[in-house]
Amino acid sequence: MPASAPAMTRILITGASSGLGAAFATAYAKKLGANAMLALCGRNEVALHRLADQLRSSFQSTCVVYPADVRDAGGMQAIANNFMVAHGTPHIIIANAGVSRGTLTEHVEDISAFRAVFETNVLGMVHTFQPFIEAMKLSRTLGEPAQLVGIASVAGIRGLPGSGAYSASKAAAITYLESLRIEMQQYNIPVTTIAPGYIRTPMTAVNTYRMPFLMDAETFATHALRAIAAHRRFTIIPWQMGLIARLMRLIPASVWDAIMKNAPHKARQTSE
Q1: What confidence tens digit (pLDDT) does each residue in 69-92 have?
Q2: Poorest-pLDDT segment among 10-19, 42-51, 153-162, 207-216
Q3: Tell me: the pLDDT tens digits for 112-170?
Q4: Is 190 within 8 Å of 231 (Cβ atoms)?
Q5: Cβ atoms within 10 A of the Cβ of 89, count?
Q6: Nearest of 175, 61, 189 to residue 132 by alpha carbon
């Protein structure tokens, strides 16, 4: 009898319009080809359709597009319902959607920026995972793979001046993902936290300061896919930033304050 065709791997990615999300989608399409079923979620519908067309044409991957704002819990629930009815439970969910804003607490107008950053980077991750977890539990009992992946940041290791909202949101994301990982252990659902350093994306393109070990998004995605496949609990990419992060954790607060006192700030931005 002829061998059966490999089963499709169903992967849902938020923030897929550009940057890391688009790099993840492209890397999976390149790796899996026609065996990839990609759900591309993001706020830029035109960019999502453009990416989906490219992946279908270049790699014969199956792509579905979901215009989405992860801050909208009801919208994310509707996407989950639609995808699972049409295609089944995802095998991998990558909560990648994120925003970065320069913020200063003394400016009252920055409160809206703080809110937007936390709602996207933290609650958006919850809104992405929550609708799928019960179905993923069932999938695991049936022997299907299921994995949750959250994109944090090295910025969540220590507070950075001018980035109070972003640093705090990524610290919260790291801790949230650790809690979730422990909760999902009993269901044999791996949870992987990936903390990028400086990656060349539209988000970092606005930075005017030096970014050590700056890495292309495509290279980042290649390393990230390996970490996901290995079910890594926590990984920092690139590895050089991982070494720096270990040092950051060890530096006493007084020394950290002195080092960061005159560090460059990310430019403030209060509008979306």
Answers
A1: 999 999 999 999 999 999 999 999
A2: 207-216
A3: 999 999 999 999 999 999 999 999 999 999 999 999 999 999 989 887 777 889 999 99
A4: yes
A5: 22
A6: 189
Which amino acid makes up residue 177? L
* 52-64 residue pLDDT tens: 999 999 999 999 9
Parallel, antiparallel or unpaired: strands 62-67 and 215-216: unpaired
Sheet holding 9-13, edge to edge: 62-67, 36-42, 9-13, 92-95, 147-151, 191-196, 234-237
Which active-site residues does the annotation give? 166
Q: What is the reported pTM? A: 0.90
Amino acid at 181: R
